[in-house]
Design brief:
The chain is mostly loops. It is about 5% helix and about 10% strand. The protein has a domain at about 15-45: N-terminal domain of TfIIb (Single Sheet), CATH 2.20.25.30. The protein contains 1 helix and 3 strands; from the N terminus they run αβββ. The chain has a 3-stranded antiparallel sheet, with no helix packed on it.
Length: about 55
């Protein structure tokens, strides 16, 4: 019974993150049913933070 490297090789081909309906990025988590980028499935408003603001420098 091995729980190490041999088991990790069997994880290939399983897509956890798929394309999001709302933002189009591949950050929608199938198991959690939410997008880490825009917050689809978790929030009605788009997920955004002030520290992530785009600057014109």
């Amino acid at each position: 019974m091995s729980k190490g490297t041999a088991s990790m090789g069997k994880k290939s081909g399983k897509d956890v993150h798929i394309r999001c309906r709302r933002c189009g990025k591949a950050s929608y988590h199938k198991i959690n049913r939410s997008c880490s980028s825009c917050g689809y499935g978790k929030y009605a408003k788009l997920r955004s933070y002030t520290w992530k603001a785009n600057r014109k420098d």
